[in-house]
């Protein structure tokens, strides 16, 4: 898979591509990463890529021309990162793995000229109900979530037991020491009864999902009832 980051600040992505799982995926030639500087496509002599908002309003908008020229000859899936986008999810991450090339366009300032959203990209994606200074961090979030699902990047068994893999959050996990400052690991994990361990883990998945993500729990219940 090829991933293109389209940004005013391409240096943001240097460490992303050089560390940990992403770096290993690049080394294995599972992923190729390219950065594209929007300013390289500006027709302004000062390399400006933003302008005032028609109708009035605070801030500046990213103009359509530089972004159009930057991505018009690129194939595959094109995604704009924006607080106004649809929520990113594990389901979307899985869907995006089907593409050979993904281009992530990073917003800045007051956002995009709406014609970019309507005509130049396939998705407008948000990673949460909050505002960041730009789309670079969200773009890396999306890229990381997709890359780790590609065959050969992470062990399949690890992916199968993660949060969201079955519609619920992951169960609690523990490591050594067994007791730390009177805080003990649950004894059920040491009894050797794998059926009881699985039952405990399932109960804890449900408990944690109900507590931390009632919206996810409601979605899970609706799906379960629909499949009955």
From TrEMBL:
InterPro entries: Alpha/beta_knot_MTases, tRNA_m1G_MeTrfase_C_sf, tRNA_m1G_MeTrfase_TrmD, tRNA_m1G_MTases_N, tRNA_MeTrfase_TRMD/TRM10. It catalyses: guanosine(37) in tRNA + S-adenosyl-L-methionine = N(1)-methylguanosine(37) in tRNA + S-adenosyl-L-homocysteine + H(+). Residues 1-218 form the tRNA methyltransferase TRMD/TRM10-type domain. The keyword tRNA processing applies. It is found in: Cytoplasm. It is an enzyme of class 2 (transferase). The keyword tRNA processing applies. GO terms for cellular component: cytosol. Keywords: Cytoplasm, Methyltransferase, S-adenosyl-L-methionine, Transferase, tRNA processing. One of its GO terms (molecular function) is tRNA (guanine(37)-N1)-methyltransferase activity. Specifically methylates guanosine-37 in various tRNAs. NCBIfam families: PRK00026.1 (NF000648), trmD (TIGR00088). Homodimer. This is tRNA (guanine-N(1)-)-methyltransferase. The gene is trmD.
């Amino acid at each position: 898979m090829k991933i293109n980051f389209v940004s005013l600040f391409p240096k943001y992505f240097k460490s992303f591509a050089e560390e940990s799982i992403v770096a290993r995926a690049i080394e294995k030639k599972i992923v190729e990463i390219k950065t594209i500087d929007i300013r390289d496509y500006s027709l302004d002599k000062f390399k400006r890529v933003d302008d005032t908002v028609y109708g009035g309003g605070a801030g500046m908008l990213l103009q359509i021309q530089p972004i159009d020229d930057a991505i018009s000859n690129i194939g595959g899936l094109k995604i704009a990162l924006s607080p106004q986008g649809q929520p990113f999810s594990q389901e979307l991450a899985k869907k995006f793995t089907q593409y050979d090339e993904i281009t992530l366009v990073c917003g800045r300032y007051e956002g995009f000229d709406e014609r970019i959203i309507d005509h130049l990209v396939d998705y407008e994606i948000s990673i949460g109900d909050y505002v960041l200074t730009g789309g670079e961090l969200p773009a890396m979030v999306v890229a990381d979530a997709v890359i780790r699902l590609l065959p050969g990047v992470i062990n399949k068994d690890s992916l199968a037991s993660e949060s969201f893999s079955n519609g619920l959050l992951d169960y609690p996990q523990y490591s050594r020491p067994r007791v730390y400052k009177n805080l003990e690991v649950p004894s059920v994990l040491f009894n050797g009864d794998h059926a009881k361990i699985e039952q405990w883990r399932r109960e804890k998945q449900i408990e944690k999902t109900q507590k931390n993500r009632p919206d996810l729990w409601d979605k899970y219940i609706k799906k379960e009832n629909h499949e009955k």
